[in-house]
Specification:
Elements lengths: L1 H21 L3 E6 L7 H16 L4 E6 L4 H10 L4 E5 H9 L13 E17 L14 E3 L6 H12 L7 E3 L3 H9 L5 E6 L5 H9 L2 E3 L4 H10 L4 E5 L12 E13 L4 H11 L2 H10 L13 H4 L5 H9 L13
Parallel strand pairs: 1-2, 5-6, 5-7
Antiparallel strand pairs: 3-10, 4-7, 4-8, 4-10, 9-10
Helix pairs in contact: 2-9, 2-10, 5-8, 9-12
């Protein structure tokens, strides 16, 4: 009887283990961005879609707001975020332990899984402002966004490259607060990322108080791009959705990448991409948050930066017909 009971208990244990394994859920934290920026609502919408689509496959994703690109890349490199977005600047610097990540040292426990889109940097003033050029900003109150955000780094790089950084009165307000501050004339100049050429806080402000973008001169643009090789030159066109923006403005452009920590399974990455990048789903997501509009498997620039693409992501994008260079694909 005792032997029979022991066998029965062993069988129950095996069945229970199998049941638990079959119902195990992989849980992942998806870092986004600060309130007032474009990443927070975009990633929030994406996470809702993922959980609706993948709950039956043992995958669960949680939307976690953050301070932005610098914090995102630092946290995914350390593993406290499983997946997130980040500017190419922070991706490359964390990979090599340089710039903002010098104290962190080289960290390569993450991989690229998608190219979200190219962004630009917006420099804006109220339309009736006397500021027409970067040189006119000397002595003016210029908001460079919150420290710790990728946009703050890009703003500072632009003003340093243009030779005006040490001549301005610096402010470090967040996306939402800086929009209000410009409208209330508490600051003179607004600097922010654009997707590709707009940001919600500024577009909304322009309905009440028209705004105008200020561009780099041709020589200033060349200096910024040559000093900071992460950037490429771009010219922002007139924009009907931004009241007051009626002329062209020279600026910089840079990639935003979607990254994942090595703790994510191949399944967690592949299924996540399969849901989000589905053309029908992307169309729906873009209506809610335009940041998703240009999601792709374009990784050619990584051949220069020597940052790696996750094999599961490469497999997904190749299944879609994208030519992913073999030289940038590498596991751990």
């Amino acid at each position: 009887m005792r032997k029979f009971f022991s066998v029965f208990v062993a069988i129950l244990a095996v069945v229970a283990f199998g049941f638990a394994s079959a119902n195990a859920v992989e849980r992942y934290k998806f870092g986004s961005g600060p309130a007032g920026g474009g990443w927070n609502p975009a990633i929030g919408a994406g996470v809702q879609l993922l959980n609706k689509s993948l709950s039956g496959k043992g995958l669960k994703y949680a939307h976690v707001p953050s301070q932005g690109s610098v914090a995102n890349i630092r946290r995914v490199a350390k593993g406290s975020f499983h997946t997130t977005w980040g500017h190419v600047v922070q991706v490359v610097q964390q990979w090599n332990g340089t710039g903002k990540f010098k104290k962190d040292g080289v960290r390569r426990d993450f991989r690229i899984i998608a190219n979200v889109r190219a962004q630009s940097q917006i420099i804006a003033v109220l339309a009736d402002s006397p500021i027409k050029s970067f040189s006119d900003m000397a002595g003016k109150r210029v908001n460079l966004l919150s420290r710790g955000t990728g946009s703050n780094v890009n703003c500072m790089n632009m003003f340093k490259g243009a030779g005006i950084f040490n001549k301005i009165e610096k402010r470090f307000l967040g996306f939402r607060d800086s929009g209000r501050a410009l409208g209330d004339r508490q600051i003179d100049v607004y600097c922010s990322a654009g997707a590709p050429f707009t940001i919600p806080a500024l577009t909304q402000l322009s309905v009440r108080k028209p705004v105008r973008y200020v561009g780099l001169s041709e020589s200033e643009q060349k200096k910024v791009v040559s000093t900071f090789p992460f950037y490429t030159p771009v010219t922002i066109p007139p924009l009907s959705e931004v009241k007051g923006q009626t002329s062209h403005a020279r600026s910089i452009a840079y990639d935003v990448f979607w990254v994942a920590h090595k703790s994510m399974s191949d399944k967690g990455i592949y299924e996540m991409l399969k849901v989000i990048a589905d053309p029908g789903n992307l169309k729906k997501l873009t209506k809610a948050a335009r940041y998703w509009a240009k999601l792709s498997g374009k990784f050619d620039n990584l051949k220069v930066h020597k940052v790696h693409v996750h094999p599961a992501a490469a497999r997904y994008w190749r299944s879609r017909g994208t030519n992913v260079p073999g030289s940038v694909v590498k596991g751990y």
